Amino acid sequence: MKKLRFVVSLTTHDNDFQMEQAAAAQQAANRLGVDIEILYADNDAIQQSQQLLQIIQSKGALPDGILFEPAGGTGFPQVARAAAAAGIGWVVMNREVDYLTDLRRAYKVPIFCISSDHEEIGRIQGKQVAALLPKGGSVLLIQGPAESTAAKHRMTGLYDTKPVDVQVKVMKGNWTEAGAYKAVSSWLKLSTSLQTALDVVVSQNDAMAIGARKAFQEITDPNVRDRFAHLPYIGIDGVRTTGQEWLRKGLLNATVVVPPNTDLAIQMLAHAVQTGIIPPERTMTVPKSIPTVEELAKKPVQTAKSAGA
After folding, report:
1. Hey, is 141 helix, strand or coil?
2. 3 state DSSP class of 245
3. pLDDT for 181-196, tens place per residue?
4. C-alpha–C-alpha distance, residues 31 and 28, integer Å
5. pLDDT tens digits, residue range 93-105?
């Protein structure tokens, strides 16, 4: 049987979940005897589309499939069509796109999506906030990039389940620790920021939560620094070597574990190419809270307002 070759395109190598995606992809490829090439887009959608088009338009041997997690706000419908027309399987990860049905109807190659359920991830995080702040309060939310549908869906889910009397201040990050550190550090330079009452720091991934924590630790006034340092920090991803380790060390109070989907995607794509059996158009992975929401509810936060801050 011919040895399959896949290209895996990820958003960045400066993010723990993306590195977990890469590791899971390599493990799956080794287990299945598939050759893979992993590319990183440096959070640049134009760079990512150019990388993929260069592969699709190559004069050499073409890959059997492309698996990619979009770096920007688009799912690259034109690139997808070019890949399908060239006989290359096409798998979209962690993004809902609206062109899959038409593309699957027009071409016989495997075309499908596998994604984390981002709204459910947000709903779990909203329940974590409710457990920590049963009587209401204020949170700082470090959100992913504005163009990211994952960030938008996580926000929607959070607002579905957070208590109505929890106020949210939103700050933009770029999924990285450095990006969140920069955003929070810039905010802390404002004269009003240090007087802001905050009860929980909520981040749309674990790395940004750690970046925010580092920025708060650099506050020069020790009393203000201690107030922010003792806030609960909650994130998303729960990578075993980072998020879950930060949880064990007390740097995070909770996370939402998001299983990597590259391994399942490679397994499904390999099976489809080898058998001709096309997978379902969409497959969702299942997130979970660590610790459980019930365990978090046993340790509610004393809010800044009730403490007289």
Report:
1. strand
2. helix
3. 999 999 999 888 878 8
4. 5
5. 988 899 999 999 9
Domains of the chain: 5-116+259-285 (3.40.50.2300), 118-256+292-296 (3.40.50.2300)
**Cα 250 to Cα 176: distance, rounded to the nearest angstrom:** 20
Confidence of residue 305 (pLDDT cuts 50, 70, 90): low
Statement: residue 145 has pLDDT above 80: yes
206: which 2 tokens? Answer: 């674990």
Residues ≥6 apart with Cβ < 8 Å to 4: 32, 33, 34, 35, 64, 65, 270, 273, 274
Evaluate if residue 1 carries a pLDDT over 70: no
Preceding amide of 259 cis, omega within 30:
no
In sign, the C-alpha dihedral spanning 213, 214, 218, 222 is positive
**What gap in Å lies between CA 50 and CA 79, rounded to an integer?**
9
Q: Give the closest residue to 71 by CA, choosing from 100, 98, 101, 51.
A: 51
Question: Does 38 score more than 90 pLDDT?
Answer: yes
Question: Look-up: residue for tokens 């607002």?
Answer: 159
- DSSP H stretches of helix in 166-242: 177-188, 206-217, 222-229
Calpha distance 270→273 (Å, rounded): 5
The tokens for 301 are 């936060």
> Which residue in the block uniquely carries the two structure tokens 């080794």?
30
Nearest to 228 by CA among 185, 204, 272, 197: 197
d(CA 268, CA 85): 20
Mean pLDDT of 186-213: 92
Instruction: Tell me if 100 sits within 8 A of 113, measured CB to CB.
Output: yes
Per-chain mean pLDDT for the chain:
93
